[in-house]
Amino acid sequence: MASVRKEVSNKQLILRDYVTGSPKESDMYVKTSTIKLEIPNGSKAVLLKNLYLSYDPVMRIELKIRSSLPIPLSRHYLGTERLFGWPISVTQFSVLVSRHLDYKEGDFVWGPAIWEEYSLVKEPNLTKIHHTDVPLSYYTGILSYPGITAYAGFYEICSPKKGEYVLVSSASGTVAQLVGQFTKLMGCYVVESAGSQQKVDLLKNKFWFDEAFNYKEECDLNAALKRYFPNGIDIYFENVGGKMLDAVLLNMRDHGRIAGCGMTSTYNLDEPERINLMFIIYKRIRMEGFSAIEYFHLYPKFLDHILPYIRESKIVYVEDLAEGLENGAAALLGLFSGCNVGKQVLVVSRE
Amino acid sequence: MASVRKEVSNKQLILRDYVTGSPKESDMYVKTSTIKLEIPNGSKAVLLKNLYLSYDPVMRIELKIRSSLPIPLSRHYLGTERLFGWPISVTQFSVLVSRHLDYKEGDFVWGPAIWEEYSLVKEPNLTKIHHTDVPLSYYTGILSYPGITAYAGFYEICSPKKGEYVLVSSASGTVAQLVGQFTKLMGCYVVESAGSQQKVDLLKNKFWFDEAFNYKEECDLNAALKRYFPNGIDIYFENVGGKMLDAVLLNMRDHGRIAGCGMTSTYNLDEPERINLMFIIYKRIRMEGFSAIEYFHLYPKFLDHILPYIRESKIVYVEDLAEGLENGAAALLGLFSGCNVGKQVLVVSRE
Questions:
Q1: Nearest-by-CA chain A residue for B240
Q2: Cross-chain residue pair B283–A245, CB shorter than 8 Å
Q3: Mutation for B interface: A60, A282, A295, most B CBs within 10 A
Q4: Count of C-beta atoms within a 10 Å radius of residue A254
Q5: Closest chain A residue to B245, measured at CA
Q6: B7-141+319-347: CATH architecture
Q7: Residues of A in contact with B291 (CB under 8 A)
Q8: Min distance A192 CA to chain B CA atoms (Å)
């Protein structure tokens, strides 16, 4: 059971303290310690080698979790919060040593992340990876919670119908990439908004979305939406909130649906934007927040749906890979300021 | 077919022009003209004698309709807007003369209102009153659109379950009276908020609601809601919007539902309040606007549901009656400033 090398060096990315205001690179540092490549008798632990770490916009909330109100997503992992720097990010692991009957050495698994090279997990609750004919890094994004988020959010919350008009905001992350492609597969018209010309180019050239625009270059979001949606919006997949939501409400069609996935624009605000919610009543709009965790029971159905499309390249997926824990903090801040093009992933170690 | 008197005096309440800002009594005046009590050959018109006129908070929007955005409710009546002062109020009529096959003299009907004593309606689209063992004035409120609003809003939008915690705001109008009683009949806990001590007394003494409070006397709405809902709110029946909605979102339980019926507090505001919508995502809340007009197909089912309760006094209904078109403007402004206790009705003529 014991490995050849008894002990290895283990780098960790540490958050000095919970952050108030905008996070800075100096809020984090890399610490190097050692970890034993063995597990005590009587334990049900597994020892994992981290391969890929997922970055998600909602981590901005996690960084200041103590100063904000309790969030269900983090409560879900509260028991392990001491262990995990940012509990809701996802890692794709390989199992090095296992004392747990459900996992054996060499298994690939995914689950909540510790930002380090090796992780000893005492009570593992990990999802096994059975399909390894697709890139393993996909299990930090399109094939883990962000994928389920897109799947549940679009099919379960948005109640889409063929031919409808769909807007997806903040569009180069996994969720928005995937929602846009689900939308096209269903025969809807889709426009995505993103925060840089590079992202817009990606959306136009790599995906087959009908339109994409840079919301930072639009001084009048209402006018922009009227241009892209002269007939109005049936479905809005909400990732940003704030001024975009306000403009969207002006342009929604009667009986429109808004899937509340995230509100990244509000995560650093001290007070919320003014939003004319009367339109929810005027236009009989349904707005619904949701969390992928509550749709995890759909994971097998989701894989059956998406894997054939990925294998046939009918669904494409763009990742932005950063290499090494030393670059972890910079890539995280880059994500928060919108520098990533595609899903931001940190390569801790190649498989 | 012709009546004994060929012509009668006909008082009308006239709106001078669409109102900007808060409406004043001087924005309206009573005009007296005459109307012929006969209908030309070849017409399908009916001549109606108005008995009771309904006042509704949403009329505040109608008064300034030209200066605001199109509203589905009024669009519904747009073809007749020239005719109707305030198109979405409801009158209960008796038919005096009819050239229309669907209506005969002596019928009682209800439908969109003209603020006058007698109305010639060229293309009548009126609902016949078959049950006259309940007060006819009820057909301006609990047995017309406000009733359908409460019925559809509560049963269709709120998805209530026995034992849930329900808050109804702005609680002395028809909709809130009725939603509260539906809530109790279902075995839920209900608290209603209103804008005066007199209304709170009504809610406590006349209905069997669990609690009622005067929101104007609460300097901290969040604290008030925590006091009345230590376990949180499952369902919020939204009639006021603004600061109340903001405080409610803080106190909603996971998977709460908000039925968007009206936002009276915002009708006179130049810009909307700041509302922390992130809670819709954190708590996976569903918020949905609706309009009773779209649930009118449920009207027969609604009558079957409610009439037995009214006859057995298991549902009670409180009206605030003003007498005569001369007092129409004052009563309307009284409603806007919250002076009514119970559903505000104008008696144009007793049946």
A1: A278
A2: no
A3: A282
A4: 15
A5: A277
A6: Alpha-Beta Complex (3.90)
A7: 281, 284
A8: 21
What average pLDDT does the segment A50-68 reach?
71
Instruction: Give bridge partners of residue B192 from the DSSP assignment.
Output: B168, B212
Architecture of domain A7-141+318-347: Alpha-Beta Complex (3.90)
| CA–CA separation, B37 and A82 (whole Å) | 83
Judged by CB atoms closer than 8 Å, whether chains meet at B288 and A285 is answered as yes
CA distances from B68 to A170, A232, B18, B25 (A): 31, 18, 10, 21
B161 SS3 class: coil
pLDDT at A94 over 70: yes
Angle at A42 between CA A40 and CA A48, to 5 degrees: 50
Chain A partners within 8 Å of B263 (Cβ): 277-278, 281
Residue B241 with chain A: CB contacts under 8 Å: 277-278
Tokens of A207: 């995906």
Question: In CATH, what is the architecture of B145-293?
Answer: 3-Layer(aba) Sandwich (3.40)
pTM (2 decimals)?
Answer: 0.85
Q: Could you tell me how far CA B38 lies from the centroid of its own chain? A: 32
pLDDT band at residue B78 using 50, 70 and 90 as cut-offs: very low
Residues A180-196 as b/e (b if ≥16 CB within 10 A, e otherwise) read bbbbbebebbbbbbbbb
Q: Which of residues 265-284 of A touch B (CB under 8 A)?
A: 266, 271-284
